[in-house]
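We close this part of the discussion by returning to an individual protein. The encoding preserves chain order, so positions in sequence and tokens coincide. The sequence in question and its structure tokens are set out directly beneath this paragraph:

===
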Amino acid sequence: MNLLYLTILFPLIGFLFLSFSCGRLSENISAFIGVGSVFLSFITVINAGYEFLLHKSTITGYIYKQTLWTCISINNFKIPFILLLDKLSLIMSCIVTGIGFLIHVYSSWYMRGEEGYSRYFAYTNLFISCMLVLVLCNNMISMYFGWEGVGLCSYLLINFYYRNSDNGKKAIKIFLITRISDLFLLIGMLVLWNEIGTLNFADIATFIDQKNIKDSSIITLGTLMLLFASIGKSAQFPLQTWLTDAMVAPTPVSALIHSATMVTAGVYLISRTHCLFLLNPDILYLIRIIGTITLLIGSFSALLQSNIKRILAYSTMSQIGYMFLAIGVQAWDAAIFHLMVHAFFKTLLFLSAGSLIILCNNEQDIFKIDCLYKQNIFIYIMMLIGGSSLSALPLFTAGFYSKSAILSGIQFNGQNLFLLASMFGVLITTIYIFRMIFVMFHGKEKNKKYSYEIKEITHIGPLIILAIFSTFIGALFYKSLDEIFLIKFLEDKKLFLEIISSSFSIVGLFVTIFLYLYKRPILKIIKKTNFSRFLLNWWCYFWDLNWLYNVVFIKPFKVVAWLLKKDPINSLINLLAYLLYFLNKLFLISENGRIRWYLVSLELTAIIIFILLLLT
């Protein structure tokens, strides 16, 4: 485990090599460096995890720490850079490196022939390195470097096709929204430091236990700041608007952002600092509300989208909402379990979507993608496995077990209203994901048909591995989540709940089959109604909130910019100079060398003085 630092160092070295090469390396060498560095990082994590579990089995409560250097040292104020390996950071680092490695392997095929091939791997290597810093550091200050780093990398990768100016605008928008998240985190760190005197995660928990803190407005404020930071990073309501704009990036980047890096950061932060949130039941209730609103907004919005990547983006938003809801009911392990399973099936769906996009000449509209399932059976099966796990079809999918854990946590805490909303979310999720699959693979036959050919192992290999882990095999990892947190929820009497949950997903599947396979004329009739047009506008535009931010922030900003374009402040400062210039001109007129002017001036002055004397 003393080589734990190599997990961060390997992809960082890969980034430096590829950056300094300035694109002069061949595609094969660039792919070898980019993929190989992440693979070495993954092997290092597996080795460290094996040693950690050996120690864990013999030492109760074992946690490994590795001190690398001191970032700041001013008198008694010291900030060391320490890596922390416990079960939570081990699971997160396995997700980051494992899923990241599979995406890198797939990218070596997907990005072949693209301009900036080595630049792509340089950015993704840096992305992995920053995310590992985020999940492995033992204090908030060191973690903040990784938190900022993933924001920078997301900007670089979303703007990868920088020749399109629209991509640049969307990247800037995303960068600014995530800066809001960073600002909240910074404020929260300062507030907690001022109150507690430390930002070390273990020391914060110890301080709370020793002081027996129950009601502190300052700590509540700091905890709220952490929540707002997590909302922005994980694209939750009301800061969820950036996630769909991130779809302009290459498809493997979308998979990386949605499954293993960016959007998982907020869930990780709350889980890591859960001791603070336990002090504030009202904040946990707020998290439940935010998660529920987001999962419903994401599900309904995905239901009417036609772009395949936007459907999956709204799906991610919805699934992260489930994780927030689990956190809100203190089902911490269920949230991390679903985060892990979600990484499997969401990466599978995105990479399968990328294969379809390549196959169909970069077409992303599901109604224009005409890939008959008989001619594209491999991608069809991959989509079915990923979609089934997303919709939590019973018994054979990993998503079934992770969502059942979340629903059990909600039921155990007696939150029946939130339980009903979650069940409804399962129904809508099943409808929108199978709608996407049926429209693409079971549409009407057209003159132009696309046929998929299996050629490269770098393409199909990651998909097969992800498909395996999206089944019940991925759920076997659930046992490794024991004792991550002291908070537990009962798992007995889950059978009835699982039956109900399965019923919702199965009903959703049959509804989708009825609407999109056999009774499609019904949809045409429904679309013509005024009510359907209202729902379309409501779900696709109103809930997007871009219009609200445009009215509240963007337009007022433009008005202020228009008022300031002539620099009125500078003009106000120059007013004194203009006044002096005017007085100078006035005095120059009075001193013109003409005697009669001077005599008239004296007479006028004498008259004015005489009048003043009379008045007084």
About this structure: The first strand starts at residue 64 and ends at 74.
